[in-house]
Design goal:
This protein has 400 residues and is mostly helical. Helices cover 64% and strands 2% of the residues. The chain contains 17 helices and two strands. It has helices at residues 3-32, 39-58, 68-86, 88-97, 105-108, 113-124, 140-155, 157-164, 171-177, 188-212, 217-228, 245-258, 262-271, 281-305, 310-321, 336-348, 361-378; strands at residues 388-390, 393-395. Strands 1-2 form a two-stranded antiparallel ribbon. Strand 1 (388-390) and strand 2 (393-395) form a beta hairpin. Helix 10 (188-212) runs antiparallel to helix 11 (217-228). The radius of gyration is 23 Å and the shape is globular.
């Protein structure tokens, strides 16, 4: 076997450990909630994940081949295989509960392997789409698993492994292969550890904030995990619409903080200066979009319903721009203009380096600059030159 394939399999083996370790952690939830039937599905997940991970790692550990191309292949394969292991608890728990006549249809649907795989992929990619008809009818161990999977997926499986292990291949290449660029430390390992500490601090703060706002502890735990990860899985059938106004207001800053990049959070926490959250062009655009989009949505809703719907408008715009997926109202009843505006926000997404999805504001700015430069070049006179400047830095023409 070539050294290249061995390197890919070795690093892939490390990443496959993640759902196994997550399953072991989840055993405590099964015991605490009295859902002992969930123990063996999580044990099967742990054995399958850790067993395959160890096999791939130990049989290919003596190799040093590394390049950005192979790192990208490793990351792509990891994101394809890890969710498959994450689907095992959905499938096995549904199969076990199917023998009972009062098992809800929501649970029975996961007997279909495709539904279980879909839910796991949606969670690990923090997409938030779900095949669960009524999430409140799921057993608590599966409610937890959905939230836990989405929480880990929000910051990234690759980032988790890089924070725990010193990989023999280039950590910098793997870090960038997942679409991340900015660093906060001298090494990639110190950077990803800072990311995780920030993530944990904000997660705990989110849970406490939701509890103070009146959400029950179990709901606050799950929504804290899926809110800061901008994923959108809920344990309520009506998402956040099933809670009071104070909880809806509390969820808005959680979703916004999830859409802000980790380097800016790091500067905010270390410098203790609020301005760190908007000191660069990307985040200034983020806050401008939050304000302008909310105003537009308020206007569209007033024209179509003769009501400002201020709380729902603020919430839905923050949820859309952060690609979170939570909702407080049936969007189907809103005007086409409102739906189009929310769709555009979800395509753009939050800041690069955050947990949000979409193309990211940084790339949207770069794309806008490229189009602007293309038109400016058309109007240049033969003796004129252009200076390319983006994010406050001058770049060479070939780079632009």
């Amino acid at each position: 076997m070539s050294p290249i394939i061995k390197t890919i399999l070795r690093e892939l083996g490390l990443f496959i450990h993640v759902p196994g370790l997550m399953a072991l952690v989840s055993l405590a939830v099964c015991v605490l909630c009295g859902e002992y039937y969930g123990i063996w599905p999580f044990l099967v997940t742990a054995i399958a994940s850790l067993g395959l991970g160890q096999l791939l790692y130990r049989t290919n550990r003596k190799t040093d081949a590394s390049s950005i191309r192979y790192s990208i292949m490793t990351v792509a394969l990891a994101w394809a295989i890890v969710p498959l292991h994450g689907a095992i608890p959905f499938f096995l728990i549904a199969k076990h509960l199917a023998i009972y006549p009062d098992t809800p249809l929501t649970v029975l649907n996961f007997q279909n392997p495709l539904n279980a795989i879909f839910e796991a992929f949606s969670g690990f990619t923090s997409t938030g789409l779900s095949v669960a008809l009524k999430s409140s009818e799921l057993p608590r161990c599966l409610q937890w698993w959905r939230s836990f999977v989405e929480w880990v997926g929000g910051v990234g499986v690759i980032v988790l492994v890089l924070s725990l292990l010193e990989l023999s291949s280039n950590s910098y290449q793997l870090y960038h292969s997942e679409g991340r660029e900015q660093t906060m430390g001298l090494t990639i390992r110190s950077t990803v550890r800072k990311i995780w500490w920030i993530y944990i601090i904000y997660t705990l703060a989110s849970i406490i904030l939701l509890r103070v706002a009146g959400m029950p502890w179990w709901d606050a735990l799950n929504h804290g995990l899926t809110g800061i990860s901008t994923g959108g899985f809920s344990v309520s059938d009506k998402s956040i619409g099933g809670y009071g106004p104070l909880i809806k207001i509390a969820m808005v800053p959680i979703m916004i903080f999830g859409a802000i990049s980790f380097p800016n959070h790091y500067r905010f926490l270390t410098r203790r200066r609020l301005g760190a959250l908007w000191e660069d062009s990307q985040h200034r655009v983020l806050w401008m979009l939050l304000i302008l989009g909310t105003l537009l949505l308020l206007g569209f809703n007033y024209l179509s319903t003769n009501s400002w719907l201020w709380l729902d408008s603020v919430f839905q715009w923050a949820s859309a721009l952060g690609t979170c997926g939570f909702n407080t109202i049936n969007i189907k009843e809103w005007s086409d203009s409102s739906k189009l505006l929310l769709s555009v926000a979800m395509v753009v997404g939050g800041a690069a380096g955050s947990t949000a999805g979409g193309i990211k504001i940084l790339r949207a700015i770069s794309l806008w600059k490229a189009v602007e430069w293309a038109f400016l070049q058309i109007g240049l006179l033969p003796y004129e030159l252009m200076r390319y400047k983006i994010h406050g830095e001058i770049v060479r023409e070939e780079t632009a």
